[in-house]
Amino acid sequence: MAKKRCLMIGAGGLARRWLREFYAPHMERVEIVGLADVNEEVLAQSGDFLGLPANRRFTRMADAFAAVEADFCTIVIPPAFHQEAVTHAVALKMPILSEKPIADTWQACKEIYAAVKGADLKMQVVQNYRYYTPMLTLRDVLRGGELGRINYIVARFAKDYRVYGSWGAIFRHEIQHSLLIEGAVHHFDAIRNLGGGDCQFLGGWEWNPAWSSSKGQFNALYTMKLDNGVHATYEGTGTAAGKQNIWHDEYYRVECEGGAVVVDSDHTVRVERFGGGRGLRVEEMIPIEVRYQEHVAVIDQFLTWLDGGAAPEATIDDNLKSVAMVFAAIEASQTDQTVDVAAMVAAARAEAGVADGQGG
Ligand SMILES: NC(=O)c1ccc[n+]([C@@H]2O[C@H](COP(=O)([O-])OP(=O)(O)OC[C@H]3O[C@@H](n4cnc5c(N)ncnc54)[C@H](O)[C@@H]3O)[C@@H](O)[C@H]2O)c1
Q: Helices 316-335 and 106-118 sit at what angle, rounded to 10 degrees?
């Protein structure tokens, strides 16, 4: 099968790793044929790494979309610029593999959704943490059913970003709702993924403590109810001064009918069962091994989809339900009210002209 030609929007930051690590195992299936980044230095570095000629390197994404013939594009630039890239791709009917979140505002997410659905385009949003061994192992225990029905989920992300600039790109210390938009979008998706349902209602608050280095909110405490009756609670903090549950080391505990399943920063998935006169019994689960993990797995899914294979889990239809939780959380905090997430998603689908029961 011919290699798929990829136009890459973003050359530095995480895009640097996309080009050097995430695409590397798939180079027999993909060719990067164009590269855009506003930063000339990283454009030159990544362009040289790829061996791209000068006429395939662009500082304006509009020029890249106009000049490069590609089978799909990859978007790895800050969320505030995702819509601009998607708009170009939609105009060219070019399938899209985009980093999370879909966009930095709910309005932009809805417009992207409507544009992509209107053009009948394939768009996948990166939810790499679904395909990480501890999460795959945890989900397998739940799906296996040996613990019975799921009752509720407790999720925790905690990282010490108290020093300005310590959370990678500077924009994360500058934008509003930073922890929700850049962080919780992964954890809310994980709650849907583990809970096996979509969020119906969500309430709680985000805030920024006086000593935070960020301009936006770095703390979040939320409670939610999924449409299958599963409840969940989320603690997210970018000012963690105590125990850390950083990226890949998040804490998830799922309380079920016949026991609980837990993963913490040591990555070992443990099943806990209490009772039967034997107190608490703890069993360590064998980690699930897969050929590809995280971004490498996401790219594999996307290429398979383009080749006519199965649709991935995180299509834009599905991911709208995760990103809606982020913007519901912002609204809940601003209004001190519980937000009807399901109604938000239904309205976005109706605005996009997507009928009930269609499009996932
Ligand atoms: N899935 C994950 O685990 C994960 C991890 C980190 C970041 N991300 C996502 O990746 C995306 C990029 O994040 P980052 O940390 O790499 O950000 P970043 O600020 O480092 O930017 C990445 C690159 O985009 C370029 N850029 C900025 N504006 C641009 C524009 N208008 N046109 C072209 N290029 C532009 C920058 O110069 C930089 O080289 C975000 O959506 C972020 O949420 C995902």
A: 160
Q: Which atom of ligand 1 is nearest to the CA of 39?
A: 37
Ligand 1 proximal residues by C-beta, below 6 Å: 9-15, 36-39, 42, 61, 76-79, 81, 99-100, 126, 128, 168-169, 171, 182
- Cβ neighbors of 308 (< 8 A, separation 6 or more) are none
User: 0.85 exceeded by the pTM?
Assistant: yes
Q: Identify which of 40, 68, 76, 298 to mutate to test ligand 1's pocket (most ligand atoms within 8 A of the CB).
A: 76
Domain ranges in the chain?
4-128+293-351, 129-284
CA of 11 to the centre of ligand 1 (A): 8
Query: Which superfamily, per CATH, for 129-284?
Result: Dihydrodipicolinate Reductase; domain 2 (3.30.360.10)
pLDDT digits 0-9 by tens, 52-103: 999 999 999 999 999 999 999 999 999 999 999 999 999 999 999 999 999 9
Distance CA 327, CA 335 (A): 12
